[in-house]
Amino acid sequence: MSSATRPPAPTPSPPRRRGTRSDARANDALILSTAARVLAEDPNATMQRIADEAGLVRMTVYRRFRNRQSLRLAIFETAAAEAQQVITNALESDLDPVAALRALIIEMAAIIQRYPVLAVSSEWQPLPTDSHRPSPPPASRRMHQAVFALVKRGQQEGLLRHDLPPELLPQAITGTLHVVTRFARTLRTDPATIGPQVADLLLDGFAAHS
Questions:
Q1: Which residue among 3, 32, 74, 108 is least packed, with the fewest CB closer than 10 Å?
Q2: pLDDT at 121
């Protein structure tokens, strides 16, 4: 066959474009933040409702998370990773112990507000003498240890009261953040004020008196 009669070579079809990794990360963040809000309002919310609230098709959600339980687990793991970074920053900062505690409280409040389901599914720290309650997750334990260490430093430097046990403040932070954040959502309080207000409430009570 001559070149004059040879059929033209087929034009290759363009490669199929797939979502970028950044697209996938953005979708994951959207799904988790939406699920954290929806599940806080209704623990039995369907995957379809979560997808609708996120503005995504249901299969996009199912490709990443099989069911509500896997969504909850991913929310807690994501929040825990963010909390670990906040704790590390507080311990490694050059701030004095009181300022570091204030920054930690404000950032932890922001995490709970990003994932509201945390405020209605809290993991409480068991008492040292209570062997029947489950241990808290590692992020919670580390947060308590970090606060305890900062309080001890603050007491040694004369910045925090000596008449209160250092074990009290970690418990107070955990309980107060969960309770205040939960009620603030129902009262539609400005989210930006919650962390600073909790910090003022707790640290003014712990401040050393001249």
A1: 3
A2: 61
Q: Which residue has the higher pLDDT, 133 or 174?
A: 174
CB-based burial, 21-45: b 16+ in 10 Å, e otherwise: eeeeeebeebbbbbbbbbbbeeeeb
CA angle 168, 169, 172 (to 5 degrees): 90
Given phi > 0 = left and psi -120 to 50 = alpha, else beta, which region is 168?
alpha
| Phi and psi based region of residue 189 (left: phi greater than 0; alpha: psi -120 to 50; beta: remaining) | beta
Element of type H or E holding 203:
helix 191-206
User: What is the model's pLDDT at position 113?
Assistant: 86
Give the whole-angstrom CA distance, residue 201 versus residue 207: 11
SS3 letters across 43-58 = CCCCHHHHHHHHCCCH
For 28-57, write each residue's pLDDT tens digit: 999 999 999 999 889 899 999 999 999 999
DSSP per residue, 172-200: HHHHHHHHHHHHHHHHT--HHHHHHHHHH
